[in-house]
Amino acid sequence: MANPQKRKGDAAEREAALLLSELLGMTVRRRLGAGRTTSAGGDTGDLDGVPGHVIQVASWANTAAAARTKPEEAALQSIHASAPFAATLVRFRGGTWRVVLTPEQWAAYVSWILRQSPQGTALPDLPPSSGGGA
Asked: Is the pLDDT of residue 115 over 90?
């Protein structure tokens, strides 16, 4: 029988994949295989299906520790995967999810968005964020 922490982690990865699939309208799934490493030995994240992204998932009792630790792991994994973007989904008690980024990860998104603007300074017309609950 699998270790309880592994079962919890696997379930969180499946839940996160379903959430992102629904939000993005694309198929997101768990990466299969222990360690999910490249031929060079580097981990490449927990989820697959979002182009250009490494996505790390954490469902820890200590969410503060997950928020401190996992984004740095995702950054290293994005190097292993040659992906320009990295993000960490942290599951809180009760099933609330938050995306956690380092300042560098957030700046990569903002820089990319601003480069898409003809003037390089204006954001495209986007609907307001729904906020995603408490």
From this structure: no
